Write the structure tokens for this entry.
Amino acid sequence: MPKIQIITTPAGEELVVIPRADYDALVAAAAEAEEDAAEIAIYDERKAELAARRDERLPPEVSAALLRGDSLLKALRNWRDMTQLQLAHGANLGQGYVSDLESGRRKGTPETLALIAEALQVDPAWLTS
């Protein structure tokens, strides 16, 4: 064990003098512990998402359509290879209303979005979150 020196200041505060290598090792260990704590927090957050069923990912085709500028509803409808009329019929809505939802001219109620999600056979959370 290296020699450790303790110095007491005139105010009574104790200072510890250690070799530089020991100091560097302590700093590295503290940084590693901080990184571990951050990883544990990410892990805990991910487990909570899984428990809340927010873990389902959009299909790659839908993500690509979103990147091209399509609305989520339009991307999901096209992914399911449906026309607006087919979706409207499946959700018991008017085609014009579906068009308004896709373009953002209207916002759907949670009940309406649930009907659309059912017609698209997707998790309702995809449309309501």
